[in-house]
Design a protein that fits this description.
Elements: E1 2-5, H1 9-22, E2 25-30, E3 34-39, E4 45-51, E5 58-60, E6 65-69, H2 71-79, E7 85-89, E8 93-97, E9 102-106
Antiparallel strand pairs: 1-5, 1-7, 2-3, 2-6, 3-4, 7-8, 8-9
Helix pairs in contact: 1-2
């Protein structure tokens, strides 16, 4: 896997900051696109972000991979590489390579959530009769 990002670095930095502020377990899946899942302690997916490969300058990946990352550290790394970076995977680490900097972050094994994503056109409709409300 090798992903290069320079043209949309500001947008990616905003995404990373949002995830870091949520302070939950974060899993990264890479296949034809990049998918970021933020999951709470009860294993409920709070956020599912799909970033299409054309968002990146270059996106080369031959197999589906998934791992967990500490996004507090990812945020610090991405913020130190304002002009962009190349992202590469090694056995236990993820390598961020900028113009003058190289940073690695330890990845950890995760189990992929097999829950299907909610379709964009899906609507939730809840009806509650007014006599179900309690007045005080």
């Amino acid at each position: 896997m090798e992903i290069k990002l320079t043209k949309n670095i500001n947008e990616f930095t905003s995404i990373v900051k949002l995830i870091e502020n949520m302070n939950y377990e974060t899993n990264l899946f890479i296949n034809d696109n990049m998918s970021i899942h933020v999951v709470d302690e009860s294993n409920i997916m709070l956020l599912d972000i799909i970033i299409k490969k054309d968002f990146f300058d270059e996106f080369n990946n031959e197999k589906e991979i998934g791992f967990g990352l500490n996004f507090n550290i990812v945020n610090k790394i991405v913020n130190s590489m304002k002009s962009g970076f190349i992202l590469k995977e090694s056995d236990d680490n993820l390598l961020f390579k900028g113009n003058k900097l190289k940073r690695t972050i330890k990845k950890y094994v995760v189990v992929k959530h097999d829950k299907p994503a909610i379709p964009k056109d899906h609507k939730f409709l809840y009806k509650i009769s007014t006599d179900e409300f309690i007045s005080f």
